[in-house]
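I'm stuck. Please check this protein.
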Amino acid sequence: MVEGQRDKLKPCVGVMVWKDGKVLIGKRRGSHGEGEWAFPGGHLEFDESFEECAKREVLEETGIIIKNLMFMSVANYRRHENRQDILVNFVSDWESGEEINFPNEKIGDWQWCLIDELPKPLFYPTQITLDSFITGKNFYDKE
């Protein structure tokens, strides 16, 4: 194994949350993708379903409750030499709550944006999610 390489894959979920024709996106903080814009999401916990993970991550990161969660795509990708991720993407509707910028979360500065007016640069997993939404492609393998 290469120094600094993770020896285990960490499955993640990403969620496009829709409200009034706009999607929720926030700016990443910290070393991984800092300054890039991303949809809410995060790592799957042990013994957690994809649906539970998606709802938990959106609530923890944004303070928002979602509904109508639907599978969109799955991706197996390596963005960096020492990191490989499995990403399961979903689309959902806003149910309740107002977005909150939690200071200890990796994403903040939440905004509701039209899909063709998303801020740049986009976080790589968000690029995959957006491509899936636009094209209908639901499988990305080591791209």
Notes: Helices lie at 50-62, 124-135.
